[in-house]
Amino acid sequence: MTVPPLVAATGPLSDRERERTARHAVLAGLGDQGQRRLAASHVAVVGAGGLGSPVILALAAAGVGTITVIDDDEVEYANLQRQVIHRVDDVGSPKVASAVRAAAALSPETRIETRRERLDAANASRLLAGSDLVIDGTDTFETRTVVAAACASLGLPLVWGVIQEFHAQVTVFWTAPPEGVPAIGLDDLYPAGSADDLPTCAEVGVLGSLCMTVGGMLATEAIKLITGVGEPLLGRLVVVDALTGTQSEVPLRAASSALSQAPVPPTPPERTWTAAPEVDLEQLRAQQSAGAVVLDVREPHETATGVLPGSVVLPLGELLAAPDRVDAERVVVVCAHGIRAHRAADVLRGRGVAASVLAGGLARWQS
């Protein structure tokens, strides 16, 4: 579904900017006028992390005139595996500072406005006001819900993506679209409360290269909306599976429609992580005394700080590659937060092992 260009074209580009963006000028449907629309546009990017990093790079390279980057965090060493806008020398510095440096190095005429604030319900409308569209690069559904509500209040299109492990989703929400375009919001995909218990990427991991793939898709959706080229992902959800190298499309309609599409979870539907029973620490010890094996599936850097007495250590990746290494009738699986333990327990239960999981992982019982 095509929509009119979101932004009116600015005046002529400078000679240097015209030279820098020459490959856009020859694109059918975009051309000089589309490039001038990009130069006149203002995009707000919420989050300068795994998704926000490639988005900022792509928007600056494309010649977007103004980019507002909203992030209150500092760069950590563990960010560098996926947050490609930051460098080793940036560790300990504000993430918004990396955004300014990287964007200026790509596009000297792009203006970067930084807001080193944590976006919440109280300030979201203020932080997003004045932009032509918003790209959500945050990593919790609590914040995503706030961003979506502010965009709905301001009538702004929201380019939206979520990524976890090897999987991702990308779409465009717009509750006040042009006439003839169906209004779709975040609640039409994830009704309130339906995604509250999703694990974080710190718990289950995320493929760094997939962040760049999805970030590029988000930036492309923004460019299409700004310039009016192509068909934005309005009413369509793209589901990405990096492990199989496939993308599928799911129609998305308003929840009030009789044809409404049920939400698609960000993890493969065949995984039933909640199938294994959970036990508390006292029950774990009782089962261990009765002969059950306590299996710790954390990584070596985690188990180096200590394990439960009598545990057998086997990282999840090694277990998934060779589940027959676990030769026991009863197992209690532990990890940091319980997510990986459930995955391991599912595999073991499929092999006939009576596997349970320490509820909440070791983090819950650390004291």
Total discrete domains: 2
Mean pLDDT figure: 90
CATH class of the largest domain, named Alpha Beta
- Overall, the morphology is elongated
Q: Give the C-alpha Rg.
A: 23 Å
Could you say what the CATH topology of the largest domain is called? Rossmann fold
Strand content: 15-25%
Instruction: Give the proportion of residues in helices.
Output: 25-40%
How many strands appear in the DSSP assignment? 13
What does the main sheet amount to?
8 strands, mixed
Observed structural traits:
alpha/beta, Oxidized Rhodanese, domain 1, 5-stranded parallel sheet, 367 residues, 15 helices, Rossmann fold, 8-stranded mixed sheet, elongated, 13 strands
Question: What does it look like?
Answer:
This protein has 367 residues and is of the alpha/beta class. The chain folds into two domains: 15-251, 3-Layer(aba) Sandwich (Rossmann fold), CATH 3.40.50; 278-364, 3-Layer(aba) Sandwich (Oxidized Rhodanese, domain 1). Helix content is 34%, strand content 17%. The protein is built from 15 helices and 13 strands. The protein has helices spanning 15-20, 22-25, 31-40, 52-62, 95-106, 124-128, 141-154, 186-189, 201-204, 208-227, 281-289, 300-303, 316-321, 339-350, 361-364, and strands at 42-46, 66-70, 111-115, 133-136, 158-164, 167-173, 236-241, 246-251, 278-279, 293-296, 312-313, 330-334, 354-358. The protein has an eight-stranded mixed beta sheet with strand order 3-2-1-4-5-6-7-8, sandwiched between helices. Strands 9-13-12-10-11 form a five-stranded parallel beta sheet. It is elongated. The protein starts with 14 loop residues before the first helix and ends with a helix. InterPro entries: Rhodanese-like_dom (IPR001763), Rhodanese-like_dom_sf (IPR036873), ThiF/MoeB/HesA (IPR045886), ThiF_NAD_FAD-bd (IPR000594), Ubiquitin-activating_enz (IPR035985).
